[in-house]
């Protein structure tokens, strides 16, 4: 065994969360919900949201929302409002890599209009007053938002670190199990597909 292989192998075994624990262990949506629910409750939050980060022309909330325990009526209203991509929360996350904490109105837009005020009231009525959120990338460099909401104040540093690390473990486990199922990691972009079509025609 080469020195580098031995060093890499030793580091893997010393890791707090070994990648070998995730290999072959499929993660269901119910497992994800249970883990997110447990992490949220441990930090004092009532609600959680896992979504893909809104980019380009795919900004609809229901397309981006992967897992949440939000009331269905709130999800429907928020989808109709179409403010997720330009919400205070997403705007703040575009400017920093550290977790953020928003008091009131985190999912509304930054404009001071009547629609945003209604949205703030609706979120507060459902118990989503304050939100602690951060973004993470999976092994394929896809970006995700983890948001925990409720009436509690900003979590202490230890709680915040536990939430962040717990979500990193969950995302790693999910991305490993889905990459095994999906097959090859490389995907063709629209541009590459179009180029191949033109090349085949000529």
UniProtKB/TrEMBL annotation:
Gene3D superfamilies: Transcription factor LuxR-like, autoinducer-binding domain. The keyword Transcription applies. GO terms for molecular function: DNA binding. Keywords: DNA-binding, Transcription, Transcription regulation. Residues 29-158 form the Transcription factor LuxR-like autoinducer-binding domain. The keyword Membrane does not apply. This is DNA-binding protein. It comes from Rhizobium leguminosarum.
């Amino acid at each position: 065994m080469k020195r580098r292989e031995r060093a890499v192998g030793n580091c893997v075994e010393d890791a707090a969360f070994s990648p070998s624990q995730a290999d072959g262990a499929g993660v269901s949506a119910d497992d994800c919900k249970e883990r997110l629910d447990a992490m949220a409750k441990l930090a004092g939050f009532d609600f959680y949201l896992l979504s893909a980060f809104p980019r380009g022309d795919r900004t609809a909330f229901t397309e981006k929302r992967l897992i949440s325990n939000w009331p269905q009526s709130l999800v429907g209203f928020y989808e109709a409002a179409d403010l997720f991509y330009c919400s205070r929360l997403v705007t703040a996350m575009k400017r920093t890599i550290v977790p953020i904490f928003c008091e009131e109105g985190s999912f509304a837009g930054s404009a001071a209009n009547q629609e945003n005020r209604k949205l703030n009231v609706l979120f507060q009525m459902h118990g989503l007053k304050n939100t602690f959120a951060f973004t993470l990338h999976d092994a394929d460099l896809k970006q995700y938002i983890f948001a925990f909401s409720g009436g509690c104040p900003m979590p202490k540093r230890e709680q915040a670190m536990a939430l962040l690390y717990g979500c990193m473990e969950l995302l790693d486990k999910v991305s490993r199990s889905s990459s095994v199922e999906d097959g090859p990691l490389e995907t063709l972009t629209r541009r590459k597909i179009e180029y191949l079509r033109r090349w085949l025609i000529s």
